[in-house]
Amino acid sequence: MRIMTRRESLAAGAAAATAAGIGSAAAEAGDARAEVGAQVPFTRVQAAGREIAVTRRGKGRPVLCLHAAGHGARDFEPLAERVGDACEIIAIDFPGHGRSPADGKPVRVGGYAQVVTDVIDALKLDRPVLLGNSLGGGAAIAVAAQAPEKTSGLVLCDPSGLIPPTPATEAAVKPMIGMFNLGVAGSPEFEPAFANYYRNVVLPAPAAAPQRERIIASGRGIAPLLADAWTGFLEPASYLGELVPSVTTPTWLAWARNDRLVAWDYCKAQATRLPKHTLDFFEGGHSPFLEDPDNFTAGLKKFLADLD
Question: Total domain count for the chain?
Answer without folding.
Answer: 1
